[in-house]
């Protein structure tokens, strides 16, 4: 897919409610090519009215959807997986243009999304309650869906985010109203074309727009029975408060500042450095999971740093759709400014800039903010090592003492992921046990296996996605007890 015309996009998109795009007669916002700044579509800026219509549609669809057999929901999820697979190249190209990530990565996103639809197609059938005999009868603990789920997602990996939210919710028998991010709505809106052909009307509804408008209306809507959010910890707090106000359950997948730890006994330094670079540069550095604090043992520090700097300087920076690009532009000029600002903060707080630190001009991509892979030698207490930058910026921290290193690795408000490299199994296990992180990867990074729980410790979130357990977040338990004949109460009131 070389040109925007080939992507099959509409000129305008309204909210997707009851399996149809609504006419656009209110305010809209632009979807821009993140490299050139060219407008590629206009999207309805949904507000309370559209959110209300979507919630009503989802509420109307709920009784019939929850009554479907899990096998039927499973079959429809498999159809969605097949439809996305057949359309994968186009959907991935749309994301590449919309958010500036290279095709290899956006293709992978859709692969993850497909695997989620398939995973929850299977999980839907095996998600069971439990039961046990009681004197004179039986107790059954049933898992029941909540109803309408309000879901809000960010822009960095839109296909994965949409699948992580939609698949478990509907597998469990809920219906959905989802707000995509204003920076990355297009592939989710295009997914609706498949949804409309597969699911009953109202099961999945999409309300594009801004967080403070559509997002706030969704979290405040009295018809929403469960909230699920992925995004920054700051907005996560706002969502959590909205849930507290209405006393509905809230699951949160939030930010990260993950440690990636190199022990002195590594055998293949080059392979470890490749992982460290990948952990920094995947998603152009805009990943919640990014391993942006690299703890390197003193004994291998110089060897690692030399290779790291040389490797980062070889990275091909270019347009998202250019075939040899490894690192592309950040999602928006604002995000670019934010990352450059952090690079300034790093310099000002005395971190040593080892490579990068500057913007790079790419021909024909004047709107895009391309930032050279940036490596700082830093201390863990510095802001660049404590705060989520969301760009290709790595802080390298030297360590000697194991206990102190663990303390520093855990010494952030986040706890999403961690990586570690060692050839000693006992060391790997003991260290993994001590790290405060929802995912620990040993001798690799970003190893997301379908079915492995994905969630954050500390300020990185509440709940786990990507796994069977996720279905529990989308259901409540109901105890039903049966007596085979009417039993005498604990005491007879009229006696
Ligand atoms: P963000 O600013 O928190 O936005 C996330 C979503 O929330 C967007 O759709 C946004 O709408 C919406 N929103 C903003 N304010 C809102 C409000 N008052 N009420 C309701 N919704 C509101 O995050 P971001 O900058 O887009 O994404 C980056 C963040 O997401 C990073 O912190 C990253 O670590 C995190 N993230 C976490 C995971 C994970 O699984 N743990 C995965 C990916 C990303 P707009 O369209 O207006 O922005
Ligand atoms: Mg945003």
CATH class of the largest domain: Alpha Beta
The tally of helices reads 15
Q: Which geometry do the CA atoms define? A: globular
Give every kind of bound small molecule, once each.
NADP nicotinamide-adenine-dinucleotide phosphate, magnesium ion
Question: Separation of termini?
Answer: 82 Å
Notable characteristics:
495 residues, alpha/beta, Aldehyde Dehydrogenase, Chain A, domain 2, 2 domains, 7-stranded mixed β-sheet, 6-stranded mixed β-sheet, 15 helices, binds magnesium ion
Structure write-up:
This protein is α/β, with parallel strands linked by helices and 495 residues long. It folds into two domains: 10-254 and 460-479, Aldehyde Dehydrogenase, Chain A, domain 1 (3-Layer(aba) Sandwich), CATH 3.40.605; 259-442, Aldehyde Dehydrogenase, Chain A, domain 2 (3-Layer(aba) Sandwich). Helix content is 39%, strand content 21%. The chain has 15 helices and 25 strands. It has helices at 48-67, 70-86, 88-99, 103-126, 158-171, 186-198, 211-220, 233-246, 269-281, 301-314, 333-348, 383-386, 402-409, 425-434, 470-473; strands spanning 12-13, 16-17, 20-21, 28-32, 39-44, 130-134, 137-145, 148-152, 175-179, 204-206, 226-230, 250-253, 259-262, 293-297, 352-355, 359-360, 370-371, 374-377, 393-399, 414-415, 417-421, 439-442, 457-458, 461-462, 475-483. Strands 15-18-19-14-13-21-22 form a seven-stranded mixed sheet, with helices on both faces. The mean pLDDT is 97. It binds NADP nicotinamide-adenine-dinucleotide phosphate (NAP) and magnesium ion. Residues 155, 181-183 line the site of magnesium ion (MG).
């Amino acid at each position: 897919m070389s040109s925007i015309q080939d992507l099959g996009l509409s000129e305008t998109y309204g909210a997707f409610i009851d399996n149809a795009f609504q006419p656009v007669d209110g305010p809209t916002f632009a979807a821009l090519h993140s490299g050139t700044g060219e407008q590629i579509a206009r999207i309805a800026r949904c507000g309370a009215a559209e959110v209300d219509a979507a919630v009503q549609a989802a509420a109307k669809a709920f009784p019939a959807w929850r009554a479907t057999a899990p096998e039927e929901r499973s079959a429809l999820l498999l159809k969605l997986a097949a439809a996305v697979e057949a359309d994968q190249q186009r959907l991935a190209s749309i994301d590449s243009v919309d958010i500036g990530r290279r095709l290899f990565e956006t293709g992978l996103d859709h692969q993850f999304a497909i695997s989620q639809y398939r995973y929850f197609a299977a999980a839907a059938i095996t998600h069971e309650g439990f039961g046990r005999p009681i004197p004179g009868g039986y107790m059954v603990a049933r898992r029941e869906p909540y109803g309408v789920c309000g879901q809000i997602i960010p822009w960095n990996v839109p296909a994965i985010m949409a699948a992580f939210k939609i698949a478990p919710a509907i597998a469990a028998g809920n219906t959905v109203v989802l707000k995509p991010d204003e920076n990355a709505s297009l592939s989710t809106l295009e997914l609706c074309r498949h949804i409309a052909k597969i699911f009953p009307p109202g099961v999945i509804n999409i309300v594009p727009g801004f967080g403070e408008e559509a997002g706030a209306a969704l979290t405040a809507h009295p018809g929403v029975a469960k909230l699920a959010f992925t995004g920054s910890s700051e907005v996560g707090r706002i969502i959590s408060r909205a849930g507290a106000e209405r006393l509905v359950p809230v699951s949160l997948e939030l930010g990260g500042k993950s440690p990636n730890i190199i022990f002195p006994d590594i055998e293949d330094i080059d392979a470890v450095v490749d992982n460290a670079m990948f952990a920094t540069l995947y998603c152009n550095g805009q990943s919640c999971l990014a391993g942006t604090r690299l703890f390197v043992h003193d004994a291998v520090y110089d060897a690692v740093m030399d290779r790291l700097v040389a490797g980062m300087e070889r990275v091909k920076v270019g347009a998202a759709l250019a075939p040899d690009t490894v690192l592309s532009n950040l999602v928006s000029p604002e995000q670019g400014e934010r990352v450059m600002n952090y690079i300034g903060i790093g310099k000002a707080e005395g971190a040593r800039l080892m490579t990068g630190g500057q913007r790079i001009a790419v021909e024909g991509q004047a709107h895009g903010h391309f930032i050279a892979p940036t490596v700082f030698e830093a201390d863990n207490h510095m802001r660049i090592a404590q705060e989520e930058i969301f760009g290709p910026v790595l802080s390298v921290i030297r360590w000697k003492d194991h206990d102190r290193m663990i303390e520093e690795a855990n010494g952030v408000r986040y706890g999403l992921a961690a990586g570690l490299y060692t050839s000693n199994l006992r060391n790997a296990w003991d260290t993994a046990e001590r790290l405060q992180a929802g995912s620990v990867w040993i001798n690799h990074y970003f190893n997301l296996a379908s079915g492995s729980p994905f969630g954050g410790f500390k300020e990185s979130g509440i709940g786990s996605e990507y796994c069977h357990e996720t279905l529990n977040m989308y259901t409540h338990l109901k105890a039903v007890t049966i007596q085979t004949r009417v039993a005498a109460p604990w005491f007879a009131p009229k006696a």
